[in-house]
Amino acid sequence: MHIRGLFVSTLLLMGSFLSFSFADNRHPIQRAPLCEKKFIALPLGTIRPEGWLKEQLLRQKNGLTGHLDEIYGTVMGSRNGWLGGDGDQWERGPYWIDGLLPLAYILQDGELKEKAQKWVEWAIQSQQPNGYFGPAKDYPNDIPGLQRDNSKDWWPKMVVLKILQQYYMATGDERVITTLTNYFRYQLKELPKTPLNHWTFWAQERGGDNLQVILWLYNITGEHFLLDLAELLNAQTIDWAARMNSPAFLRPWSTHCVNIAQGIKQPVIYGQLHELDKAVADVKRGLGILRNTYGLAHGLWGADEWLHNANPTQGSELCTIAEMMFSLESMVEITGDVDFADYLEKLAFNPLPSQVTDDYGARQYFQQANQIEVSDNARNFNVSYQGKAQLFGVLTGYPCCTANMHQAWPKFVQNLWYATSNGGLAALMYAASTVHTTIGDGTEVMISETTDYPFDERIRFTVSLKNKKKNVRFPLYFRMPGWCEQPKVLINGVCQSDIESHEIVCLDREWKDNDRIELEFPMHISVERGYENSAWIERGPLVYALKMNEKWEKKNPESVSEFYYEVTSDSPWNYALLEQHVYHPEKGFEVEKNKSTFVYPWNPESCPVRLKTEGTRIEEWKEYNHSAGPLPFSPYYQMETIHPEEIILIPYGCTTLRISQFPVWGRGFRND
Questions:
Q1: Which of 265, 365, 256 is CA-nearest to residue 316?
Q2: H or E segment at 269?
Q3: Which helix or strand (DSSP H or E) is residue 165 part of?
Q4: Which residues have a Cβ under 8 Å from the Cβ of 114 and sit 6 or more positions away?
Q5: Residue 386 backbone zone (phi > 0: left; psi -120 to 50: alpha; other: beta)
Q6: 300: which DSSP letter?
Q7: Cα–Cα–Cα angle for 612, 617, 621, nearest 5°?
Q8: 63-115, pLDDT tens digit by residue?
Q9: CB 497, CB 513: distance < 8 Å
Q10: Structure pTM?
Q11: pLDDT, tens digit, 9 for 90 and up, residues 447-456
């Protein structure tokens, strides 16, 4: 992490701001032997979304997140094992609450809090004298759609550990500390006899989630047995640094897509104890291998469900987005790494909104980067779930995503701002929001962030002090994205010097009420290359895709949970971009901004920005198996005559049907 200090050296101030002024342990500073985290999570509820992001969370509240117990009652209702019932005993109930609980406290919604509280109370009160908690009785797996025969599996409890951690971060309820301490003593005793892979392989793959909460609790209590447990549990967890950097990882079907997304943080979590710099390097090298071998335009990889290939018609699972975002958030907090933060925004602003309906009432199990039709048909996926894996519905594909998708946006909000060990605040990801907390010497401060980012290049911050007559000194940190070549930082209209791309800038000064900071991130069009040398277009954190007419048709509309949507189009899609535009994107693409205000941007009608360029149709590129057929290799020069026509590209997250990875027509050489 590169941090550039302005005005006063940060190092000189470290001694005067050693604590962050909260009256509880919801912001624990790292204890030895853990290395110091670069940033510190704020208590849940400190950060409130504004603008389109607030609208997004309200749609979750009014959609599946707020009503899943009604819509999917067979699993999320009172018979769920995590409520003491004889129904589903495994991961889906905890998955839902892992998103519902942070949503409830961010929105300060009493009804949602009440729904989440039932699950928290049962988990805490289920603890046995030996420290075990959770469902303890197996049932025959004789009810379709329920998982009832693995109640003691380590894996679902890892999700509940995250829930309890978040609940403590919201409330400071000390029962959480007692429950976790007792459970971790139980794990230390039992894991040598019943290791993580005793019941299923999922816990062995995802042990980093368990490890993360162990180290968090150690920072609060300082109990040494937690370090012993951390070493034991990590030894039983897959070594993701080794796996991702091994030749076997390059083989298709070697690894489950969601396990990658969850496991990738494990080296960095453990790196807090040993060799963090090496862990970060290993993870980045592994991400490079993943990107070069399986990477797609939207930032995920071709894995439906197991690693497949980089063809843009392969699927990417919704759970992968939610878990990869959480892993990146975890790594950003520890490392302050700009690359991880840039990647997090790419996932949040591109594949995430495209895979859930605008009303948050249905989701898609697999999405395709090149997706010309959504229909009840089998595709060339590793598993197609009787042709329903690509449909928008509640239970289409596999139901895990119906339960797990809810965490993505609330946790993104929770990670917009961080505290720092020297009494400051840091904005590392960007969206309209407010943070209301105390800094340095206990002074109350609120900072409002106003922006249409990622669609606009400007982000404005206003500092509000409770005591408006007293100026306060504290550092503010801001990330300069790696994609922005010439970022600008202005304080009260005055442009600051020595601002560079791909760094975290520290503004350490005395602030007065109503001080204003403005960030300007000029967004230039760039071209990336992928499968069959195809090209995709990026501008800032957004990927752009072909705009197509979309006709939505609801099937089985009378059913609350068995309905689904098909989406078709009469638009042509088989376009190639022109070589001269790809080589000179600043000339070949025209940016058009929609000057009308928007409430919710993630659809073709409301998208705030678009690109105009030229393309030419490749008649030989046809539909195959309800998907775009084999992607022509680029440069595609086999047409003697081309017929350029204007095409419109819009942000990927605003599309359902699209081409995002284009063949390129041309002769294969630059004519500069």
A1: 365
A2: helix 266-271
A3: helix 154-171
A4: none
A5: left
A6: S
A7: 130
A8: 999 999 999 999 999 999 999 999 999 999 999 999 999 999 999 999 999 99
A9: no
A10: 0.95
A11: 999 999 999 9
